[in-house]
Specification:
single chain; alpha/beta
């Protein structure tokens, strides 16, 4: 049996998402979650998660630099972070200020440490921002100093996890080029293989999608998931809504054990 990580992103983005993730952790349906530290109710959500952090689950930092969230520092123009498209353009044009980026990343680390009383077990990025030029250097450097035992998420797709042309998966793989090597050079470990990117708008059968992802992973691989319950806060904060409930239904229901059996996988 291959041992894998099923990691739920976006813990803390809204109460319904956090509630769903806690339920899945409690039932051992997932074994990792990544926490956003830029929301005002971080400490309340952390307190609710702490009883489930007894060593079986990896609780990580979800570095956030995009979306309608207020930065924790003053280095970003505007009241909220830029869109992903704007951040991509700025990063690849080499116009991100490395001092401001590092300050924001470090402050999010500090917020995590204050909320949970310890460094994160792993580090990744909301909308994969940790892979971008300037951002990746800051994330790896701050992780090396503040959480040297943490693993960082390499988003290089596992060969068997891509689905046809899969432009989204391949683009994320393009962003990840060289990241694993840079992480290892910093003394950090990474997951071995990645899956989980798909077009949320397609409305396809998530059970089939998840089966394909896990089947394509090898031992030590990671599949990213976004389960949640839709509430008013989520609708205000993020466009990804109904797909979260579809994922939660599969992860919480009778399908997941059968998927793991079929793919000869178990949670690490």
């Amino acid at each position: 049996m291959k041992r894998i990580v099923i990691c739920a992103d976006d813990y803390g983005i809204a109460p319904g998402v956090s509630e769903a993730i806690r339920a899945l952790l409690a039932e051992r349906r997932i074994n990792a979650t990544s926490v956003m530290t830029v929301l005002p109710d971080l400490f309340e959500e952390a307190d609710a998660l702490l009883p489930l952090t007894g060593g079986q689950a990896s609780i990580g930092l979800h570095v956030t630099l995009t979306g309608s969230f207020e930065p924790l520092t003053h280095g970003f123009k505007g009241a909220t972070f830029p869109s992903l498209g704007r951040l991509l353009l700025t990063a690849f044009a080499r116009r991100l200020d490395p001092v401001n980026v590092k300050a924001e990343v470090e402050t999010q680390f500090i917020a995590f440490e204050e909320a949970f009383g310890r460094p994160p077990d792993h580090v990744d990025g909301h909308q994969h921002v940790h892979l971008l030029p300037t951002v990746r250097e800051a994330v790896l450097e701050v992780t090396r100093r503040r959480a040297p035992n943490a693993w960082v998420r390499d988003c290089t797709p596992a060969d068997g996890s891509l689905n046809g042309l899969d432009p989204k998966g391949r683009f994320i793989g393009f962003l990840a080029r060289g990241f694993a090597e840079e992480a290892k050079a910093a003394g950090l470990t990474v997951n071995r293989g990645f899956a989980g990117a798909y077009d949320f708008k397609l409305g396809t059968n998530y059970g089939r999608i998840l089966t394909h992802f896990i089947n394509g992973l090898g031992d030590g691989g990671l599949v990213m998931v976004h389960p949640g319950l839709v509430d008013e806060a989520l609708v205000k904060r993020d466009p990804l809504t109904r797909a979260r409930e579809a994922e939660y239904e599969v992860l919480a229901g009778a399908q997941l054990p059968q998927i793991l059996l079929t793919t000869q996988a178990q949670l690490r």
